[in-house]
Amino acid sequence: MFARQVDPHTYHRPARLRAIECYGPTVMSSVLPSVADKPRYVAAMFGRIAPRYDLMNTLMTGGQDSRWRRIVADSLVLGDQAQVLDVGTGTGKLAQAVRRAKPRARVTGVDFTLPMLRQAPSDLLFAGADALKLPFADGQFDAVVSGFVMRNLADVPAGLAEQARVLRPGGQLVIMETTPGPPNLLRPLFRLYFRRIVPLLGQLIAGDESAYTYLPESTLAFLEPDRLAAVLREAGLRRRTGAAAGPWQRGGHLGAQGCGLAVSRQLSGDGC
Fold this sequence. Notes:
Blueprint lengths: L37 H12 L3 H9 L2 H12 L7 E5 L5 H9 L4 E6 L2 H4 L7 E4 L12 E7 L8 H11 E13 L7 H20 L4 H10 L4 H10 L2 E3 L8 E3 L10 E6 L6
Parallel strand pairs: 1-2, 1-4, 2-3, 4-5, 5-8
Antiparallel strand pairs: 5-7, 6-7
Helix pairs in contact: 2-7, 3-4, 7-8
């Protein structure tokens, strides 16, 4: 985990960053779509696996995905009637976790894959929307959260800039994502699990081996934690003073209120 904050008096919307930044330094797998094809590919893939998506997440993570969502929800520091946006809400699991942890907050979920939204609870506030073009005003939300979304964006820096745009000054940005970790003795085991076991589970449980080949490969090709932190800084976000781990914030001097969190699960076995 790591945390950052930014100055509302000096914050300026960042210039558009290069889409190539959405991939890490490793050689890209042939199963990954091009940047241009990625939105269409991702929407179609999640549409196919929507009915078994939550079950597969639980199986792939050994049930840890629920704990990670609780970490994200519990990290939020919100007042009464706070507005929270869940980007790429999918089936609404993260939005539900936030509502349970912060019952006075008003949580809205957005996703561009309608079959995923159809799996969400009927009492969840949601809308069909593109994470790169959020249909909300500047500074509308007190917090923006996302879970397993960023590595699926065609343009990660643009997606982060858009999330920062809809945050109020001092608002909280919380990201839950899987990232490649540094090389160590466990990394080959994680690669074996992701490249052999996960696709097999995807075929047996979800009936879609190709989707569960893409998902682990997208983790292996994603930004490593330090590079993701650099992109967050370029989006106008800074680590909270004195915090080794935790939230990121838009706006605020180093002592300003508000925070944001990035929960990063590394393939090395390190992480929060």
